[in-house]
Amino acid sequence: MIVVSGARTYTSDGWQTCDVAIDGQTVVTVGSVPPGQGDVVIDGAGKVLGPGFVDLHTHLRDPGQTWKEDMTTGTRSAARGGFTAVLAMPNTEPAVDSGEMVRRCVRRATDAGVVEVGFSGAMSLGRSGEEMAHLDEMYEEGVRIFTDDGDTLVDGGLLRRIMLYLSDRKDAVIAQHAEDPAIAGDGHMHEGSRSQTLGLVGLPASAEIAVIARDLALVAETSARYHVQHISTAGGVALVRRAKEEGLNVTAEVTPHHLMLSEDNLGSLDANLKMYPPLRSIADREALVEALREGVIDAIATDHAPHTVSEKDVPFEVAPRGVIGLETAFPAALAALDGDLDLVFDRMSIAPAEIGKFPSQGKPISQGSPANLVLLDPDQSWVAGEFASRSKNSPFFGQELKGRVVATIVNGGIVHGGGR
Amino acid sequence: MSLFDIASLSTEEITEILDSAESMSHREPEGFSGRTVVPMFFEPSTRTRLSFDLAAARLAANLVVFDHETSSATKGESLRDTARTVGAMGPDLLIVRHEQAGAPEAVARWSGVPVVNAGDGRRAHPTQTLADLFTIRSHFGGIAGLRVGMVGDIVNSRVARGLLGALPALGAGVFAVGPPTFLPRHGEWDIEHRGDLDSVLGELDVVYLLRVQKERGGGLGYPSDSEYHTRYGLTERRSEMMKPEAVVMHPGPMNRGVEISGAVADSEKSLILDQVASGVPVRMAVMARILGGAT
């Protein structure tokens, strides 16, 4: 039995300062545990205990690019960031586009994963954007999120057919990386004053807005369940806000880096600040933070995208896109949400567990609830620099961050910290 | 130590370099024999390359050529490894031209050797900017108070980018003229936009024409060369609308018959060859500043 003693705890009856006992994979006591009980006792005094974080957007690079990350290092990174579950993106090599690939990935996660791993499936075969992937096979294997992430599904006709095809399964989600490649062109960073000054080809906000606008028209026709991945623009937020008001079944996620950083951070052309969608303007960033607080944006998702030092240490324009994010997500969320822990747990655990269909995640703690938990110290500062991830391409590298993950418990086992 | 872009120089430093270039063109400069300059050009160049070579020769520095075409870079060696290799041999100064923005900074970081940026992508080409400032200053005796029209493909031009920052700082008024696809859209520079060339021509002291960049950026920003020439080309008819004492500049290479008519390029108003000539003393001044240990 594991006991977390005296933490301020996010329970189904609100915040309580109490002991929590875990037996097997379940919380067995929320209240008072007599001293001396428990094989492992984690001192929670002055700390915060809640349901573990759930990431809707993780690139584990396994199979295919395991020099950047693999199932073990990626899920260790998740554990270190307080995530008890992650949704793996299907842009592996080969892509996850069939039942067989899902089974292969699930086996790999069972063998080598440290936290729960869910798998999303590609919408199009081989993520080519040309024909439907094996949607039924993947659905049968438990896939509920379908996305060509990394690329946008550009063909509106194909997307409409996929939306219609899946519309009789209410739990199937169409998730879009919204970025029109023709508008985006050769862009490497947000089109704005920074791209103009630096002379880099800009990537206009309209590249995202245009795709979301088109997709929402398709959603209205097909009644599909639609999710906007890593939303980055005020214009995109406005469209999601209106779609929700109109009653469309739409959700959205935002990354920690888009909440915390803007194009103004790009003066040094550091490739660790290169990702798609790019860091946008300050006005965009403010709109994202506001929308997250209001709930127009439902969840924080990391878009954890590992690349090695030698891949990233090249001129900005030729650097691969993407940054890691699992291990710095909590302090970023805490800052963006102004220290409001109710919102942190909602946007990082409750909401993403619901969107990503993780039934044993994102549950406020109660007797009988699943033991997927995170213990946090919101006041502790630390310098980002050492990562469990195989890669180090963090936009927060070397920065002092406030808010630290003390321990992570998955299925009743301690996977990070806690004097393990 | 290195020179990556004009924006990192103060107006005082710009003036110092221009003063130093002026003295270079009058008297024999301090020699730098025994110091080694390595031009690393990863992109083709005629005038910039030759200008740096001549400038190094006049400084009596040893010029050791890095030939990109026959280097290991063509065997797939990364820029990082190439830079580290060159750096290990201990040259005193590298002159870097590369198609990617920020490559000169990266080469300086990897090699540990000071770098003069000789053009990185669409971003910066500081010695060209300084040569242009030197040309204007030499011709007019000063820069403050002049009205300069930058005409054409401004957003895709590393030359324009440098001048848009430096000219207003030195007291010149700057007009940006061209189709909206070519004009800066995000306020960062103290400049005035004019869509119509004819309406502004009579006010300008310097008409600075930019090369229509067909090789960079995302797609052509105008319908055809002939339409561009009709609306924005500096034709002979238009050149007659200029003030008598006004001059024409162009960073080269020119598209004759597109942004400038051949006759105007070769006319008395043209400072285009002065710009080329200015490159040598300015590059001498820049290299001397670095080799001489100025910070």
Roughly what percent helix of chain A?
25-40%
Biggest sheet layout of chain B:
5 strands, parallel
**If helices are DSSP runs of H or I spanning 4 or more residues, what is the number of helices of chain B?**
11
Mean pLDDT of chain A: 96
Poorly predicted runs of 5 or more residues of chain A:
none
- Order of helical and strand elements of chain B: HEHEHEHEHEHEEHEHHEHH
If interface size is counted as residues with C-beta under 8 Å from the partner's C-beta, which chains form the largest one? A-B, 21 and 26 residues
Approximate helicity band of chain B: 25-40%
Number of strands of chain A: 18
Class of secondary structure makeup of chain B: alpha/beta
| Share of residues in strands of chain B | 5-15%
Largest sheet of chain A: 8 strands, mixed
Rg of chain B: 19 Å
Task: Name the overall outline of chain B.
Answer: globular
Distance between the termini of chain B: 5 Å
Based on Cα principal axes, name the global outline of chain A.
Answer: globular
Distance between the termini of chain A: 14 Å
Structural class of chain A: alpha/beta
Spatial sequence of strands, sheet with the most strands of chain B: 7-6-5-8-9
Low-confidence stretches of chain B: none
This entry's quaternary arrangement is heterodimer
Descriptive report:
The complex is a heterodimer of chains A (420) and B (295). Chain A has helices at residues 71-80, 99-112, 135-140, 156-166, 181-184, 193-198, 206-222, 234-245, 256-260, 282-294, 309-312, 329-336, 341-355, and strands spanning 2-11, 14-23, 26-31, 40-43, 48-51, 53-58, 83-88, 116-119, 145-146, 173-176, 189-190, 202-203, 226-228, 250-254, 299-300, 373-383, 400-410, 413-417. With 420 residues, chain A is of the alpha/beta class. In chain A, strand 1 and strand 2 form a beta hairpin. In chain A, helix 4 packs across helix 7 and helix 8 (234-245) runs parallel beside helix 10. The model of chain A has no long low-confidence stretch (mean pLDDT 96). Chain B has 295 residues and is α/β, with parallel strands linked by helices. In chain B, 39% of the residues lie in helices and 14% in strands. Chain B has a 5-stranded parallel sheet. A 4-stranded parallel sheet of chain B has the order 2-1-3-4, sandwiched between helices. In chain B, strand 3, helix 4 (103-111) and strand 4 (115-120) form a beta-alpha-beta unit. In chain B, helix 1 (11-26) packs across helix 11, helix 5 (126-140) packs across helix 6 and helix 5 (126-140) crosses helix 11. The A-B interface holds A 185-187, 191-193, 195-201, 269, 310, 313-318 and B 7, 78-80, 98, 100-103, 105-106, 121-124, 155, 158, 161, 184-188, 217-219.
